[in-house]
Prior knowledge:
mainly alpha, two-stranded antiparallel ribbon, disordered N terminus
Amino acid sequence: MILATYPTTFQVVFFMKGNVVQELLDFISKECQTRLGENLHWVRRERLLSIEDAAQKTKCSVEEIDALETGRKGLDLMLVCKLLRLYKERLYINVESYND
């Protein structure tokens, strides 16, 4: 699986249901998860939003957003989706299948 992120271009495409989405996170490396959090931080800053503003508008806690942006916590897909919606951004996730 390849996770490609660009500083201000995000799109989340989830066409799977239930546990499959959570299992998707198992294929995203910790490094890519951290980069995604960093990119979300910089997009928030570009939008001139404080972390408190983002928390209020997404009905999430400042601590949750900070943990995501700093890589202290694994990806919370619901939080990522809320932030992407707020920032009007897209995240492209390319899921490829490999036969061993």
